From TrEMBL:
Domain of life: Eukaryota
GO BP: any one term: hydrogen sulfide metabolic process
SMART domains xrefs: Lactamase_B
Name listed for the protein in its UniProt record: Metallo-beta-lactamase domain-containing protein
Annotated Metallo-beta-lactamase domain residues: 60-232
Protein keywords: Metal-binding
Entry GO MF terms: metal ion binding; sulfur dioxygenase activity
InterPro entries xrefs: Metallo-B-lactamas, Mito_Persulfide_Diox, POD-like_MBL-fold, RibonucZ/Hydroxyglut_hydro
GO cellular component: mitochondrion
Organism: Coptis chinensis
Length: 258
């Protein structure tokens, strides 16, 4: 059996327990002099992969930094960056001597504005990535089975719709030259002891059930949550549909090769 660590975008402990899954639940957040918010340093048993879990307090969003530190250029990527903490993320990347090449999203978020647009403006050469099924703007679009390479490491793309129509999970690569244990970046498809809501943006409790294979009462729970209207959705979704930049008039949109 392959061991996975599942890493979510948003912390939520209120929905239900998922007994068969192993999570990182990280509370200790040491500081860097250049940082502007909390982050967590995680020890991964690999000499190649540098990994950091970052946190944005207002929306309780986790951002993940990964890099191949054995590659001469130390290429790095960010998973689910937030606009309000983009400067912090850039500072940490500079502090660590990394080269940011991708800023990627697991889906079009409704609780915050993505940091990809801000980061692209401040770090030349960075490309944004999102799923083709999201129907939003980005530099590169991915589909199930694609691979995102950074140095000699890569992430596999897995379609996990249900929270939104375009949700994907990014899984660290499989192979003797890839870090172990493997990690899955689930976005809001799967949270810590919970999952994302399914009542907007093309969400479907049945689709999400099939995506995460949870428990028998899942459909009933999700359809009877009676949650309030998301307070940031009218700002966050339109902004995130254009990569966090509402005034973009010219964007390159090309598929990412497998």
């Amino acid at each position: 059996m392959i061991r996975f660590s599942l890493l979510t975008t948003t912390y939520n402990a209120n929905l239900f327990s998922l007994k068969k899954l192993s999570f990182f639940n990280l509370n200790s957040r040491p500081s860097l002099k250049t940082q502007m918010a909390d982050y967590t340093s995680v020890s991964v048993p690999s000499s190649k992969l540098l990994f950091r879990q970052l946190f944005e307090k207002e929306s309780s969003t986790y951002t993940y930094l990964l890099a191949d530190v054995t590659h001469p250029q130390k290429p790095a990527l960010l998973v689910d960056p937030v606009d309000k903490t983009a400067d912090r993320d850039i500072s940490i990347i500079k502090e660590l001597g990394l080269t940011l090449i991708y800023a990627i999203n697991t889906h079009v978020h409704a609780d915050h504005v993505t940091g990809t647009g801000v980061i692209k403006n401040k770090v030349p050469g960075v490309k944004s990535i999102i799923s083709k099924a999201s129907n939003s703007k980005a530099d590169l679009f991915v589909e199930h089975g694609d691979k995102i390479h950074f140095g000699n490491l890569f992430l596999e793309v897995r379609a996990t719709p249900g929270h939104t129509l375009g949700c994907v999970t990014y899984v660290t690569g499989d192979g003797p030259d890839q870090p172990q244990p493997r990690m899955a970046f689930t976005g809001d498809a799967l949270l810590i002891r919970g999952c994302g809501r399914t009542d907007f943006q093309g969400g479907s409790s049945l689709q999400l059930y099939n995506s995460v294979h949870s428990q028998d009462t899942f459909k009933s729970i999700m359809e009877n949550l009676n949650l309030p209207y998301p307070k940031m959705i009218d700002v966050a979704v339109p902004a995130n549909m254009v990569c966090g930049l509402q005034d973009v008039t010219k964007k390159s949109c090309e598929p990412l090769a497998t």
